[in-house]
Amino acid sequence: MLKEAKDAGIPVILVDRDINTKEEGLATCLIGADFYQEGVMAGEYLIRKADALGKSHMKIVEITGTEDSTPMRQRQAGFMDTIRKDGRIRVNVRSVHDLHRRRVPASAADLRPSE
Fold first, then answer.
1. Tens-place pLDDT, residues 67-105
2. Using N-to-C axis directions, what is the helix angle for 35-53 and 70-86, rounded to 10°?
3. Cβ atoms 15, 31 nearer than 8 A
4. Which backbone phi and psi does 2 adopt, to 5 degrees?
């Protein structure tokens, strides 16, 4: 459908979600949040928190939303790129949740790795 719109000269404007396609230029523009920058900001906050607490290393739990959605992938990329540069922060447990279908674990105890 996107190719047909492009071939017909009809501009396609994406709102809030990007598309994964091998062909470039199918969409005219994307109107939405900068999810990558949101991840960077979360990582920067965590680094400032580690500084304020005088931490030389931190193990964290990363809770993400719907797997492979544009916001999740881009936020995670920004977050990981940022904390990777610092080196003190390690994701010890990653928990992925489809926030539309399942509830996030009720407590941190639910996220502990099994022994």
1. 778 888 899 999 999 999 999 999 988 877 766 655 555
2. 30
3. yes
4. -65, -40
Q: What is the pTM of this model?
A: 0.69
Classify residue 35 by burial, with Cβ atoms within 10 Å: 0-12, 13-18, 19+: buried
Identify the DSSP state of 108.
G
> Phi-psi region for residue 38, left (φ > 0), alpha (ψ -120 to 50) or beta?
alpha
- From 33, 34, 32, 29, select the one nearest 13 (Cα to Cα): 29
Question: Which residues, 6 or more positions from 90, have their beta carbon under 8 angstroms from its beta carbon?
Answer: 57, 58, 59, 60
Which residue carries 């949740």 as its tokens? 97
Provide the 10 A C-beta neighbour count for residue 46.
19
Say how far apart CA 70 and CA 27 lie, in whole Å: 15
